[in-house]
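Listing 4. Sequential folding, example run.
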Amino acid sequence: MGDLRIKGAWNEMKGKLKQKYGQLTDDDLIFAEGKEDELYGRLQQRLGKTKEEIRNEIAKL
């Protein structure tokens, strides 16, 4: 998948995550290249879920 498609898909998922989890902010969902682990760590702290649970939530979107 090309960078542009990934970014577009991420923007769509970001909106869905914010709808489902109102406590998330744009800062929580910033996805920078190479920062995937940092993003998952931030989401784990904010949502109190495991990395695997978060991945499953994102996969469902």
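-- end of first protein; second protein begins --
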Amino acid sequence: MENNDSINKAGIQNHERFMESALKLAANGLLHVAPNPMVGCVIVHQGKIVADGYHVYYGGPHAEVNAVNHLPASFSPAECTVYVTLEPCSHYGKTPPCANLLIEKGFKTVVVACTDPNPQVAGNGIRKLEAAGIQVISGILEQEARALNKRFFTFHQQQRPYVFLKWAQTADGFISRLPLPANREENTISSPQAHKEAHALRASESAILVGKNTVLADNPRLTTRLTDGPNPLRCCIDQNLSIPKHYEMYSSEAPTVIYNALKEAQEGSTVYKQLDFSKPIVPQILHDLWERKQLSVIIEGGTRVLNQFIETGLWDEALVYVNQALYFNTGVAAPDFIPLKQGLNTGAERHHFVNTTVKR
């Protein structure tokens, strides 16, 4: 005869198995749901998944709605268990509350990975379900669920976007030759695969930020042309508005924000946002992006801009591509990044760092 501990362990393992399926579904929404979170939902009857769904695009039906709509009429909701990766919403937004839907359909058990950090929800969905007599089991694969929606949690708990730092450097620590060669290919550092990965990162994040000198040197498009997915909001720090209007930054390919000291206006797809350059600009930029509901931002350079984020500690992950076979001997120095100096002996091109000092 099994004791209670073994029975409880088996139950938790089953919960985790079904929640893992819901998390895999949720991840499908990465490119299209921001500023909403990625959410997956599976409905289980007698140990088998009989319906599932995920949040497909911003403004569309939530995961619970899609799963309920996929539930065959032959299954009674009262005999099923709902697994959802984030607490069902309890407020009216672009769609009605999912908590209400689960109550109205007659479900009796709902398993939740983690609560919603959005102040409009923040436990209210769970309380609403429990008040209706529904058994709620929470905390199943909670850390995995929080990691999946790290951008969403940072946005609501820190009131800023999730910050990625990204750059490429030579083995001797330079990000560019100086002066710039006439043939720009001579200034290329990272591999074609790294370029594709960079564009995939752009597609998965809300915004991208560069400094004026990067734009003047490279005239980048900052789009996702090497991969599938939406273009990020392009952002540039140009204090005195010195970038010529014919540069790619001003194209209509993607919306653009120019952080400057001179004016606040909108001209076509370009927004001019005035900052106080007598004060630290990193907090100002992050607050503006938060107000624009940008869940994440990639900081692509140059060195001065990257160092400003490093010095303030306001970054979450860093992706650094090091060409171990390339030496410039002189040029524009890479950011002063101590974690990279401590981990350079791997021989790998791609280095990934997580800022463990940031409050989570």
